[in-house]
Design goal:
Elements: E1 7-13, H1 24-36, E2 39-48, E3 56-61, E4 64-72, H2 73-92, H3 103-121, E5 129-133, H4 140-146, E6 152-156, H5 164-167, H6 173-180, E7 185-188, H7 191-205, E8 208-211, E9 214-217, E10 220-226, H8 233-240, H9 243-256, E11 260-267, H10 274-287, E12 295-302, H11 309-329, E13 337-340, H12 349-355, E14 358-361, H13 371-377, E15 386-390, E16 403-405, H14 410-422, H15 425-441, H16 444-457
Parallel strand pairs: 1-2, 1-5, 2-4, 5-6, 6-7, 7-10, 11-12, 11-14, 12-13, 14-15, 15-16
Antiparallel strand pairs: 3-4, 8-9, 9-10
Helix pairs in contact: 1-16, 2-3, 3-4, 9-12, 10-11, 10-14
The chain binds adenosine-5'-diphosphate-glucose.
Length: 466
């Protein structure tokens, strides 16, 4: 980071960068924070007994200060489970049919963002650089500006930004736009998300395009550009060398050595297209019978947001499909689908990636999707597997050498899986080498460095009359 200021990260959940389970994003942000002796602020993940939110906890992770805040039950239900996960999450994933825009959700969302801003403002120094993450906290900069904060504030949206007609269906979407204009820099995952942003602010707020992603409206300026997120390749290589990972790999090779393994690793979320994936796999078995008694899909789907009813229905649908496919095609000594509804320890992920001939990353819509990148990073360069990737994952914009599929087209997806399973070695190597070079060059460290350099280079604003 070129600026000398302290880095302050704000996100719904705070990760402890020193814990291996924290994952690449926490590690990358932790690195950036450590360089400036930074602060990470967010929800503690705890729901307090108190009627009001706000108890603050402080701890340290090396040079990084971690500050978290508890939420009351009502704030959790409206801000987190409500507006964030039942209104914004589905709407921004193009699923207006699943969105619930209850008024109580919206007021809770505003209330918690205001509370976050009040708690954070009290801790800020004048030369801090603030980086806010994700859809839970879109209005945070506006709230901070209202309290007189003039620091540089950047925002990164980890999930997609849909085209203007979908955004315009969000009740009171004007506040959304106004909120974006309180930031100095808005980062999006892909070029097409950035195009949607450009069209949205120009069509709905009459914003003027200033070039290079700059826009002016409402008496404010913002820069909005794509910053595609990557993974920490070195972290995965380290994990792959761990005892846990080696043991799991040996076990998988013993169990499945004479089969063709396919792997899917996701949170159990409707955006990930899991029922479509299971149907494509069923079609593969029906249309290409040479895969019977051989192709085995290991699908790990970790539980998430279980209090939301759409997730419960999805769980039942998947269990039904897995049971049906195994019942119809399985043998005493072979089950086509191994479906595990639980979180898989991060340190054991490399083993799964390495043993799988094919990875199925087929979301109906995804901001980026890091699983495909992790899979590519973990392949044996001499004998790599094949990535089947949805064209609707943000990653598809960069990973053109994957087998790109439309997950809604079940027969075509089955055909692509068949092609992946039969792909000759030379073609696998060629595709893999190109993908790996890209993933190495554009890793998560490059992502955070580029974002923060861009934010630091933004002219300090003489904030903020509007
Ligand atoms: P997620 O929707 O959570 O994140 P994704 O990128 O698929 O999406 O996964 C994030 C991490 O979680 C990966 O490191 C993956 O290995 C891990 N993970 C996923 N399922 C797991 C499981 N069942 N067991 C163990 N680990 C699992 C959001 C956006 C994405 C975007 C990321 C980062 O929705 O589009 O890529 O943020 O910006």
């Amino acid at each position: 980071m070129s600026s000398s200021g302290r880095l302050v990260i704000v996100s719904n959940r705070v990760g402890d960068p020193r814990k291996a389970a924290a994952g690449g994003l926490a590690v990358a942000l932790g690195d950036a924070l450590a360089k400036s002796g930074g602060l990470w602020f967010g929800w503690s993940g705890k729901v307090s007994e108190d009627r009001a939110s706000g108890e603050v906890h402080r701890s340290r992770s090396g040079p990084v200060e971690l500050v978290t805040m508890d939420l009351s039950q009502a704030d959790h239900d409206t801000y987190y489970a409500g507006y964030s996960n039942q209104a914004l999450w589905p709407a921004l994933h193009y699923r207006l049919d699943l969105a619930d825009f209850a008024a109580g959700f919206f007021s809770g969302y505003q209330r918690v963002n205001r509370l976050f801003a009040h708690k954070l403002a009290a801790m800020l120094r004048p030369d801090d650089v603030i980086w806010v993450h994700d859809y839970h906290l879109i209005p945070l900069a506006d709230e901070l500006r209202a309290l007189g904060c003039r620091q540089r504030i950047g925002f990164f949206l980890h999930i997609p930004l849909p085209p203007p007609p979908i955004l315009a269906a969000i009740p009171g979407h004007k506040w959304l736009m106004r909120s974006f204009f309180a930031y100095d820099l808005v980062g999006l995952q892909t070029r097409s998300d950035a195009d949607h942003f450009a069209r949205f602010v120009q069509e709905e707020a009459g914003a003027t395009a200033l070039g290079d992603g700059g826009f002016e409206a409402l008496g404010r300026r913002v820069i909005a550009r794509p910053f595609p997120i990557g993974i920490d390749v070195a972290e995965f290589q380290r994990l792959a060398g761990s005892n846990d990972s080696r043991q799991t790999e040996a076990m998988l090779k013993k169990q499945y050595g004479h089969r063709q393994l396919l792997v899917g690793i996701d949170r159990l979320d409707y955006s990930k297209g899991l029922p479509h994936r299971f149907r494509a796999f069923r079609e593969l078995l029906a249309n290409y019978p040479e895969n019977l008694n051989s192709a085995t899909l290991i699908q790990i789907a970790s539980p998430t947001r279980e209090s939301v009813s759409a997730y419960e229905e999805l769980r039942r649908e998947l269990e039904g499909l897995a049971g049906e496919i195994n019942g119809a095609h399985g043998e005493l000594d072979w089950m086509p689908i191994r479906y595990l509804h639980r979180t898989w320890a991060r340190r054991r992920l490399p083993a799964l990636y390495r043993c799988a001939r094919v990875a199925l990353v087929t979301p109906l819509r995804d901001g980026m999707n890091l699983v495909g990148k992790e899979y590519v990073a973990m392949q044996d360069e001499a004998d790599p597997g094949v990535l089947v990737l949805s064209r609707f994952a943000g990653a598809a914009e960069q990973m053109r050498q994957a087998l790109l599929v439309n997950p809604y087209d079940i027969p075509a997806t089955a055909q692509a899986i068949q092609r992946a399973l039969r792909m000759p070695l030379a073609e696998r190597q060629e595709r893999h080498a190109a993908l790996l070079a890209h993933i190495r060059e554009h890793d998560v460290h490059e992502w955070s460095r580029t974002f923060l350099d861009t934010l630091s280079a933004v002219e300090m604003r003489t904030h903020q009359a509007a």
